[in-house]
């Protein structure tokens, strides 16, 4: 399982544009974030020791492809 997460991380760090939504969720959760809520296609992840939130959304008409990922500072 650790090897799979490492492979996903390497793919992201290499700048791949072909990251599946499910792969990004796996990676985010591996860093200790948990799904707080879903609003439409936006999935909001939080971490108890990090003030920023991670907001990702699925691609429209692309199935399981990641559309975008953003980090927002929650003040």
Question: What's the layout of helices and strands?
Answer:
Blueprint: H1 2-13, H2 21-30, E1 34-39, E2 42-47, E3 50-58, E4 66-73
Antiparallel strand pairs: 1-2, 2-3, 3-4
Could you please describe the fold and organization of this structure?
- The chain is globular.
- The chain is built from 2 helices and 4 strands, in the order H-H-E-E-E-E.
- Strands 1-2-3-4 form a 4-stranded antiparallel beta sheet, covered by helices on one side.
- Helices cover 29% and strands 39% of the residues.
- The protein is α+β, with helices and mostly antiparallel strands and 75 residues long.
Keywords, separated by commas or semicolons:
39% strand, globular, 4 strands, four-stranded antiparallel β-sheet, 75 residues, alpha+beta
Report the portion of residues in β strands. 35-45%
What oligomeric state best describes the polypeptide chains here?
single chain
Q: Please identify the structural class as seen in this structure.
A: alpha+beta
CA-to-CA gap between the ends?
A: 35 Å
The number of distinct β-strands equals: 4
Major sheet: 4 strands, antiparallel
Query: How do the helices and strands follow one another from N- to C-terminus?
Result: HHEEEE
Which percent range fits the helix content?
25-40%
User: Any low-confidence stretches, pLDDT <50, length ≥5?
Assistant: none
Mean of the pLDDT scores?
Answer: 82
Work out the helix count.
Answer: 2
Query: Strand sequence of the main sheet, in spatial order?
Result: 1-2-3-4
| Shape category | globular
Radius of gyration: 12 Å
